[in-house]
Amino acid sequence: MTVTEIKDEDLPDYDAAKDFYAKYEPKEVLGRGVSSTVRRCVEKTTGTQYAVKIIDLTGEKDNEWQMNEIRDQTRKEITILRMCAQHSHIINLHDSFESTTYIFLVLEMCCKGELFDYLTEVVTLSEKRTRQIMRQLLEAVEYCHSMNIVHRDLKPENILLDDSMNVKLSDFGFATILSEGDELSDLCGTPGYLAPEVLKVSMYEDAQGYGRAVDMWALGVIMYTLLVGCPPFWHRKQMYMLRNIMEGKYSFTSPEWEDISEPPKDLISRFLVVDPEKRITAKDALAHPFFKREEREARKFYPRRLFKAAVITVIAMNKIRLLRLNPPPISLDNVRKDPYGIKTFRKIIDAGAFKIYGHWVKRGENQNRAALFENTPKSELKGHERQNTLQVLEFEVKGRVGRHPLKLIIGDTDSIDDN
């Protein structure tokens, strides 16, 4: 949302809002609606920041009926917000003021803004983050439905995020209290999030009314959008979009869905059911396997055990580090079987082979180490030189495998000793 500078002419006159000005100091504009403006404000006695929604009852309205309609809707919104004041994921109404021309709703401040803006920035959310947001949304909607409240305008623009990135359901302007067994028939909401039954009741005279299930459909659209960054029924021509909604025509075939697991797809398919009677409820949705992954048994914290584990870890890491500097003893059987397979002896064997045979065992890309024991000693090498070479090798090897004949290291040297 663009923050604009404060202009005196944008603010209500003191006489029209003296009760509000006595307690709060208005600041910059946070957002604007058709007949309302949202500003940051500061409570003078405590210095606490809030967001005040200033509703202009006059605006460009020319008749008294429209003024009374807005006033009644706002009063209903205040009543619903006070009914939901105890829920942690519903915006809290701190204060309210009413004059002949303005109504002020002082709401808690959500510094992270709208979920819509957050989604625009990150494009898509992970399954884990989507699970957290949808769980909080469902808890808020379930609470509303338990009190016979239907929101009717659920969308990312009406979902705020607080400093801890927790959900705060807001904008109850279209919300209403629905008695058990009653149905609604008026068309309200945002086109992309409207349920099929809302469209039908506005198109057909004999269509059945709608109820709480419209909120569940909107939650399905929101969840779909969070995961892949686009709504399920969108079309550049609105008539095609509305037809897709009424037919429940959507898919998981786009490339973005290839990395999404089955549980979220299944939950979305239970939200986006054309028949409202078969659509999942908020309570049942919270019990869906998609949310089971988030549940973990609480573990008791034992500081003594944690410290002991940390000490053992440090000791183990030190032993591993020292193991590189002080390798363990080498088995004599392994030396006899494959002397060149032991990294410690490779340089010694190569050096001895070169001195004895006068060349490396074999040149080229593929080294045949077995050829070391197949070559014939160099005839020019004197007997005492060969003996000195063997003594040097034996001296270097003794510290590793003990005092054993050198033939265990470089093969059978009887032919060398015989010379």
- Helix content, binned percent: 40-55%
- State the low-pLDDT regions, or none: 1-6, 360-367, 399-419
How many separate helices?
A: 16
Cα shape: elongated
Could you tell me the mean pLDDT?
A: 82
List the helices and strands in order: HEEEHEEHHEEEEHHHHHHHHHHHH
Quickly count the domains.
3
Q: Which topology of the largest domain does CATH recognise?
A: Transferase(Phosphotransferase), domain 1
Name of the level-1 CATH class of the largest domain: Mainly Alpha
CATH-scheme architecture of the largest domain: Orthogonal Bundle
Spatial extent as radius of gyration: 39 Å
User: Major sheet: size, sense and barrel closure?
Assistant: 5 strands, antiparallel
What structural category characterises the helix and strand content?
A: alpha+beta
First-to-last CA distance: 95 Å
